[in-house]
Each structure stands twice: as structure tokens, then as C-alpha cells.
Amino acid sequence: MAPTDQPYVIVGGGVAADKAARAIRERDPEADIAIYTESVYGPVYRPALSKDLWVGDKSDIASQDLGTAEVATLHTGVRVTDLDPDTKTVTLDSGEAVAYGKLLLATGASSANFFDEVDGAVLFRTAEDYEALRARVSEGTEVVIVGGGYIATEMAAALATVGAKVTVYFPGAKLLERLFPPKLLDIIETKYVDKGVTLVPDAFVSEVTEGPTLIFRNGDTVTADLVLLALGARLNTGLAEKAGLRMVDRAVEVDDHMRSSAPDVYVAGDLANYPDVRLGRRHVEHVDQAERTGALAGANMAGGDETYDYTPIFWSDMFDLGYEAVGDLNSSLTMREFHNEEDSSAVVWYLDDGNDVRGVLLWNTWGKTKVARQYLGKPAPADLGEIIIPGE
């Protein structure tokens, strides 16, 4: 059977896929664009899964649909099992082969999990994960979260907001200790405790069993109505590796046009390791990066010649605390803090050993990422505290 011929194929169903399809459509109005995604849903705005859908007026997934079906043909619930750049084909789980002219790989990441599957022990990343969890949570539901990072903290706030009884077990001394300086870590801890979330530091889970029950390294056990495993993410690199695409730092190497090492294969979103014009080669797993790289890849797939010169932002909300940030936030870097006690805002600069700016955290400080971005990759000025006035 001859392969189905598709000028544009996008593998993956997230925001990068949506932005790419729209960029292709803008440049090529008659384009035939096929999107293949394992999800039963089309692209949705995924940040809402751990934010707005829990605290806003709407809790249904449909409210976050990006409307991608208006610009592309969606093939949902379909897994792409193989990518062959030599023959320019992808193979679907049905066995069907699809020939492409240009292909975008935007498969993103999946939740990491180191434990056996157990009823009541859930992961959280996809629209399906949200629906499964939301259906099991109500006022008073006892939820145990394992992990102390980005998703763990957002979901602890979200679940507590809808009335769940939340306990967070994490291996470090403080939530988010790999990101922030001690003063902000204390503020975060106080906020969660005040909101009724129980925090258990220095907790190491060795096994998850029926119940669901956590068994800790010290022999203690805890049983809850639900266990949410927030253990980080793993990039979905399987297709890229099968295709022999050049990899770097666990991700797929791309140039400043989002082109991979294979002709006519582009990569966007979490999967892309790109040359940041300010900070050097890196990969970023946040929605702003997915949107921007998806749009640029799509434009170039349709004949554009755009280069990526943008350093993405990221943000988070934790109850009424929040931040925006650019660059690399890592507490192993030198951190210089400037706090405004009047409105509880702050700016934290992250400097490398050479005193160059690697990242800027804008804590309860909004609309300043453009200002902060221009200092990335440059020597830190002597007047850091005067550049971005917290709360201004």
C-alpha cells in the first residue's frame, strides 16, 4: 500500500503543534496540515490544567481547547510509532505509513514515574490526567502528593483550593529549594501551611502499593484516598532517537530555525535544544517556549527564513503568590536579592561564577520580563537593585 501523502505533518498535540499549524496556514492558506496526537483531545492550553481549571469559573477541558481543528486536520488517539527521515515517512500504530513534505516533531514530555502502577496513584500532565483526577476529588478528599517541584506545588495549591486535604512529602528541606533563596522558601512554606497544606520534608518514598499506600525508606507507611506522583518529567525522545536525530543534553539539537539534523524535520517545544542568543545552547520546558518555537518552526516549514532570537519566560501561581522569570533559576548560582517589604515583592538575580546574569526572578512583580531579559548573558551591573524596582 502506498503511503498517504501529506505536505505538512505535525507529531504531537500541544501548544507547539497549534502554533505551528497556524503559522503554516498563515503562509500557505491552502495547506494540507495533519496533526497526529496520542491524546483523545486536540491541543489545549495546558497551564490551565494545574491553574485556572481549579480556581476559575470553568472546570471543563473544553474551555481550554485551542481551536486547532479550524486550521489543521486532527488525528486524535493516534500514536506515531516510527519516523524515517530517509524515506520521509512516519508510521502510525495502525500500520499505515504517511509520507511528509515537512515534518514537525513536538512530542513534548511525559510524567516521570519510578513506581508500579497502583489504583489511586496518579500522574499529572495531560488533559486525560486532569479529567481522571478531577473526577476523584471533592471536599475533604485526602490527597498525598509526592514531590517538591513545580507541578507538586501548583497542584497542592489547586487541590487545597477545591477543598481537598493535602499533604506533600518531598525529599528536600524546603519546597522549590533548587530554585529560590531561603527568604522566599520560608514565605512559600508559611503560605502553604496557612492554607491548610501539610508539608513533610526529608521524606523518601521507596514503594507505592495498593491502598494507595506509600512505604517510606524508614519503614513508615501512609495511606490516602489518592496519591499524586509529581516526580518530574521525561522528554519523549523515542521517535527522534529511532530516526537518528542528533541529540544533546537529553533533547534534540536544532539550529536557530528549529531545524533538526535531518532534512525537512523540525523540532519545537520541550523537545528542542536550541541556541539561545543570550545564554547559549539550552532547552526549556515551559509553555512560552513551546508557543514561540512552534510558531517559528511552522513559519519556516512553509517557506520562511526566520531565526529564533527570543529567550522565553515562565511563571507560576501558588495561592496568591506568583512570579515571572527569564533565564536559568538555580539556587546553586549566586543569588542577589532585592525585597520590597511594603508589597512583599522581590527581584532575584542569578549570577554565574563570572558574574554574568543567567536568570532573573520577578516575585510578585509583573510586566518586567522584557526589562530583565536584556541583562541576560551580560556582566551584572553594579546597581542591580535599582534596575527593576519591585512592585513598580
Automatic annotation (TrEMBL):
Cofactor(s) listed in the protein's UniProt record: FAD
Reaction(s) catalysed (UniProt annotation): A + NADH + H(+) = AH2 + NAD(+)
Occurrences of domain Mitochondrial apoptosis-inducing factor C-terminal (ranges): 297-334
Stretch forming the signal peptide: none
Keyword match NAD: yes
Record domain FAD/NAD(P)-binding: where: 8-294
Gene3D superfamilies: 3.30.390.30, FAD/NAD(P)-binding domain (3.50.50.60)
InterPro entries: AIF_C, FAD-oxidoreductase/Apoptosis, FAD/NAD-bd_sf, FAD/NAD-binding_dom, FAD/NAD-linked_Rdtase_dimer_sf
Protein name per Swiss-Prot or TrEMBL: NADPH-dependent 2,4-dienoyl-CoA reductase/sulfur reductase-like enzyme
